[in-house]
């Protein structure tokens, strides 16, 4: 499989710098989305997280509308909405509204994780007793409210009903792969932070796939951590910002972006270092030639239909440069 046959997209968390505001993060997000739009990226997704100091993407559908309004071609959506946190009809209404505002450009990826801790789940009024056991029913309800109205249907998502906004299933487990296969939905695996089960999940999804009105064959995307620069050394230096973020997550510290450092030695202990390396197992970090080599190998290993790139950069220009380098390698141009 050639890289030029694989779609390439972006995942954004509206990650704020340690010395800046969320407004600054949103401005950087718009600049990145416009750059990605011009570079041929397929979609620009936002992920729902709550009560995480430094991650500004909690009001996911609001940001999706903001990005869609600032771009022209690129698809914009959720990667994803944590469905158990919401009533399916309200999700359908939000994304039905986005569809009316930006026809043919909105995606709705949904997941079953909370995107938060237990205390935050309670603040979200999530039913702790039901947990995620009713996720298949919630997914069916969401699809019902996005589909054509049924005869005698009394409760409808307005707007939303009949919009057929594309629904993706997201996950980091075999459960999500199995459900996506059963429902015939596109599947995005969260290998940008949980790569251990990636290959097994892709196999489960493809082997169990049942054609549907949505898809006649499997379509799998994978999350890929990335930091591209003009040299390997520069890229590895920039990548320490992402490594510091995961270290902060492990330690329960704030997640605001920290500037890159010369070395992570002295900042992490051996156990933390191994955990973070496992977290970033499939990370693509390096110069243009290194990025191309690693992406080519990743395509061969996974057979993915799409790469969804996630990167954390302290300086906005470094992120724009990385987006451009990656796009050039994916297109096979220089």
Automatic annotation (TrEMBL):
The keyword 4Fe-4S does not apply. Gene3D superfamilies: Luciferase-like domain (3.20.20.30). InterPro entries: Bact_Lucif_Oxidored, CmoO-like, Luciferase-like_dom, Luciferase-like_sf. It holds the Pfam family Bac_luciferase. Residues 10-305 form the Luciferase-like domain. The keyword Oxidoreductase applies. Its EC number is 1.-.-.-. One of its GO terms (molecular function) is oxidoreductase activity. Keywords: Oxidoreductase. Signal peptide: none annotated. To bacterial alkanal monooxygenase alpha and beta chains. This is LLM class flavin-dependent oxidoreductase. It comes from Gilvimarinus japonicus.
